[in-house]
Design a protein that fits this description.
The protein is mainly alpha-helical. It has two domains: 1-31; 45-139, no CATH class. It is built from six helices and no strands. Helix 1 packs antiparallel against helix 2, helix 3 (33-67) packs antiparallel against helix 4 and helix 3 (33-67) crosses helix 5 (101-120).
Length: 147
């Protein structure tokens, strides 16, 4: 048991493999339960953080698209599409996380607004304080705002 706890700190991949092997073989006494529980909790956090991060990217580029039309480019469209695809895949694997998205919508928009201001050198006040994009629009693969 002590060996697996040390392994956790020194070679994470080997620790994972040893824990999988112990589970497969039913050697529950060899499990590093403390770290296993932490890792399981972190798995759920990672998906939530990824969803929020992808929403920030979508809002950043939607705002740039709308408020800096002379700079519109395929890389912005590609970035929006890529984030939408990644959100769709996370939700496909964990449909219950769809309920999480509305709870982070405002904060993701606020972060995207700040990043859009930084990236465009436009004043923050250029962008509306409250999102006028719905969650459905943010996730709609065909939606791009008008300039």
């Amino acid at each position: 048991m002590l060996k697996t706890q040390v392994l956790y700190d020194t070679d994470f991949n080997l620790w994972v493999q040893s824990q999988l092997q112990a589970l497969r073989e039913g050697r529950y006494e060899d499990l590093d339960l403390t770290h296993l529980l932490e890792e399981i909790e972190d798995l759920a956090k990672r998906d939530r953080q990824a969803l929020e991060s992808h929403l920030v990217v979508i809002f950043t580029h939607l705002l740039k698209w709308q408020f800096q039309p002379e700079q519109q480019c395929n890389s912005w469209k590609s970035s929006i599409r890529n984030s939408r695809i990644k959100i769709a895949r996370i939700l496909r694997d964990s449909p219950s996380l769809k309920n999480f998205l509305p709870s982070v919508l405002e904060e993701a928009y606020s972060d995207g607004r700040k990043i859009a201001a930084d990236e465009t050198s436009l004043a923050l006040r250029t962008f509306p304080e409250a999102s006028h994009y719905t969650l459905e629009q943010a996730l709609d693969e065909d939606f791009l705002p008008e300039s």
